[in-house]
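Entry, Tuesday afternoon. Goal for today is a structural model of the target with zinc ion bound, before we commit to ordering more compound. Inputs were pasted exactly as handed over by J.K., no edits. I checked the ligand SMILES twice against the vendor sheet because last time a stereocentre got dropped in transcription.
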Amino acid sequence: MKAVSLKQTGETPELEMVDLPVPSPRVDQALVRVSACGFCHHDRSVMAGLLRRGVAGNVVLGHEISGLVEAIGSGVTSLRAGDRVVSILTESCGNCDRCAAGHEHRCRNGLGIGHGRDGGFAEYVALSEHSLVRVPEGVDPIGAALLACPMGVALQAVQETALVQPGEAVVITGASGGLGAHAVQAAAALGARVLAVSSSPEKENALRRLGADEVLINNGSEETGLGFDELVMAMTGDEGADAVIDTVGSALYPSTLRCLAQYGRLVLLGEVMGRRVSLNPAEVIFRDARIFGASGVSRAMVEQAGRMVAEGKLRPVIDLELPLEQVSDAYRLVSERKPVGRIVLLPNAAGRA
Ligand SMILES: [Zn+2]
Ligand SMILES: [Zn+2]
């Protein structure tokens, strides 16, 4: 099968198409023919050499996998050949206390798909049945690739971590990115007033179509982090935001903290630049603020995202579909922050059986 190999990390990484054996599923695994695999910022960070921890040598990247079950191991009970599936982000064991508690993404024996073990930038991938969720009727196979990351991840951050309530003011940073575009929709679907922060004025209309009530163009430089907290204060009658879903991280700090209302919740969901910030504890204390980190997504949340797509409450935002061979183009476009939503790679687009 064809697969992408990361030969050399760097600002312009060396990516090569290679021929690998089709993986044989273990007794508890299914062999999935990959229909689509999203190109995540995570993949970009690994390719650029910014993210190294836990990355397996010669790993096939890509964790946003949708596909068709082609074969199953003898111990698999929940899936059969022909099922349409989407992967969660971690290959999980289904047996440990975390898996039993519905935190499969924090499996004690888990390996990150397309990180600690091979992922979906290939024609086939073998994954445990516990790592695969059935795609509901009515969700197309390409959009389905986004059900776990970024849709489920964004939904989990908004609904379960930030506990967003109807009528609350919610700031989403990096609003046109993969996580952001789906966090905007999730917050709007929960009845929040959505304030979308973006650095690109040309994306305003797209953000309004996703459900943003206000679009704040952040003109502050990444070095100063200046910008949008005063705008948020002005738009909320000096109350501030009840929740901030931050997909950008250090580049927008401390605006993300300063725009919080009393009892505000800041969810740190993405870190683009990999830099340190300096925290003034008083800024947290006097707001009675709460700061959360969040990543990954449980099976239950992926299932909920699937139902919401089938019901028309969420929609996968796909900027561009590319054959696997154009992975370098995906890398370049994501590095330039061009896409609204995701670029997805189609490993079997060439029509090979
Ligand atoms: Zn992702
Ligand atoms: Zn487990």
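The chain has two domains: 2-146+316-346, 150-293.
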